[in-house]
Design a protein that fits this description.
It is a single chain. The chain has about 425 residues and is α/β, with parallel strands linked by helices. Strands 8-7-16-15-14-9-13-12-10-11 form a ten-stranded mixed beta sheet, with helices on one face. A four-stranded antiparallel beta sheet has the order 3-4-6-5. Helix 3 crosses helix 5, helix 7 runs parallel beside helix 13 and helix 8 packs parallel to helix 10. The N terminus and C terminus are likely disordered. The chain binds adenosine-5'-triphosphate (ATP).
């Protein structure tokens, strides 16, 4: 038995009512959290003293409770984030002492306890703003959220816990996005909903450079739409696609400069270019076997870095996805220039740090579509929307072009030595 019932006949009938009230179940959490924190080894020894995590305030919300703690010297937010799962499991491991009156309502009350236990699976979220903030949600996020199209350059990210608000990622505010997550947790679904939303909202101004290195099943639907400028399925083709994007970026750079402006917004240019790489790990030169392969991948990374560094003000947005978040799988400059990160569940704290620069994604529940969306000032858990093939088809079919799409020619690096990207660049203001 996961919960403990101690019966007594001393208490009156009001006790049975008290144990099912949510307020009662959650009231104890501040003490419980402090105990779990202490048992998880987060207290700090300072000579004879033990510095503990002190509760500063707690507040009841309609979704649950928010607790604010002062953390002791010698501890960081990351220390607490690493224990998120311990805290969550501890809170859901309920040993309750309840008083039950043995009368005709006894059986009903026992069943009610069991029902409460099964339905009230709590989830927590942690953040830090000088104080450690732990939010304890009475009930989990839904495990499926319907797709909702975005507007202009905003694409759907998912449902948050904050009053169940639906979150959008605005590519005009944050141009580049890093996407991570272990296999089968929803990266491809997210990329599909992002592309579908862009095609729906800005069909005339969206330009796609798609690189699908996962065998070509996911993004092939977009081969035929007019928004797709180039599509690649192999690293050699990826180099061509990236080169095409890079050259377009240079043309725009000239155009903006000619107009005496600093960025496409000022220059009144409405076009936006999305470079989407699904499985950027396949372009990691460290993984290359032959010298030629290494040269191609190094070149690809160089183009991606240039696009990340210079592209924002020129209307370029780069989305790099990986299921193997290790070391340098995402080029350093791309990572540094991506102020938004979306991570589905990953296998380890190290992998979470590669995607988010923080731990936490390894503690996400094993639910497809559940992710952490992180920007410079906020980190939220979301349930990304599920998009069906029917919605994708319905949205993109009106944009099919008549002629067969151009698939970039595979190039032979032996015959065509690669030129490094130009470096005499002008730095443009990022939006
Ligand atoms: N947002 C979501 N809500 C509910 N279910 C989802 C969601 N996203 C994905 N799924 C389910 O998970 C399955 C795997 O999703 P998806 O193909 O997007 O994963 P992936 O991370 O891209 O995996 P891989 O890297 O192996 O391609 C889908 O077929 C779908 O059933």
């Amino acid at each position: 038995m996961l919960f403990e019932i101690i019966t007594t006949t001393i208490m009156s009938g009001v006790a049975a009512k008290a144990f099912i009230a949510k307020q009662n179940l959650t009231d104890n959490d501040s003490g419980k959290i402090q105990r779990i924190i202490s048992l998880s080894g987060l207290n700090v020894k300072d000579g004879k003293d033990t510095l503990t995590t002190q509760l500063v305030r707690k507040q009841k919300h309609e979704w649950g409770w928010e607790y604010k703690y002062r953390i002791p010297y010698g501890r960081s937010f990351e220390d607490y984030a690493a224990k998120q799962k311990n805290i969550e499991d501890g809170l859901n491991n309920r040993r309750q002492q309840v008083d039950l009156k043995i009368d005709k309502s006894f059986l009903k009350n026992v069943l009610q306890i069991n029902k409460t236990k099964l339905t009230n699976q709590k989830e927590i979220e942690m953040s830090f703003d000088g104080l450690l903030c732990i939010r304890v949600y009475d009930s989990p996020l839904p495990s499926t959220v319907d797709y909702l199209s975005g507007h202009e350059w905003k694409v759907p990210v998912g449902q948050t816990r904050d009053q169940n608000a639906f979150k959008f990622h605005d590519f005009e505010k944050i141009p580049h996005l890093v996407l991570g997550g272990a296999t089968r947790y929803g990266k491809s679904n997210f990329i599909n909903s992002m592309i579908t939303s862009l095609v729906h909202s800005e069909p005339e101004h969206t330009h796609l450079y798609l690189i699908d290195l996962k065998g070509g099943v996911e993004l092939s639907d977009y081969e035929r739409i007019k928004q797709t400028e180039s599509i690649a399925y192999e690293p050699e083709e990826a180099l061509e696609t990236l080169k095409a994007a890079y050259e377009r970026m240079r043309e725009l750079q000239e155009e903006v400069r000619r107009k005496g402006k600093k960025n496409v917004q000022q220059a009144g240019i409405k076009e936006r270019y999305f470079v989407i790489v699904d499985e950027v790990g396949e372009l990691n030169p460290a993984e290359a076997i032959t010298r030629e392969e290494k040269a191609i991948k190094t070149e690809c990374q160089r183009y991606m870095s240039q696009i990340a560094r210079l592209g924002a003000g020129l209307g370029f947005r780069q989305i790099l996805a990986t299921q193997y978040p290790t070391g340098d799988v995402i080029p350093r400059q791309c990572k540094q220039n991506s102020d938004a990160k979306l991570s589905f569940r990953v296998q380890s704290a190290v992998a979470s740090r590669v995607v988010l620069d923080n731990e936490g994604a390894e503690c996400l529940p094993q639910i497809s579509g559940r992710a952490i969306y992180q920007t410079a000032d906020k980190r939220e858990i979301v349930q990304t929307p599920y998009i069906t093939n029917e919605i994708i088809k319905e949205t993109i079919e009106p944009h099919f072009r008549l002629e067969t799409p151009k698939k970039e020619e595979v190039i032979n690096v032996k015959q065509t030595p690669q030129q490094p990207p130009r470096t005499n660049t002008v730095t443009f203001e990022q939006v």
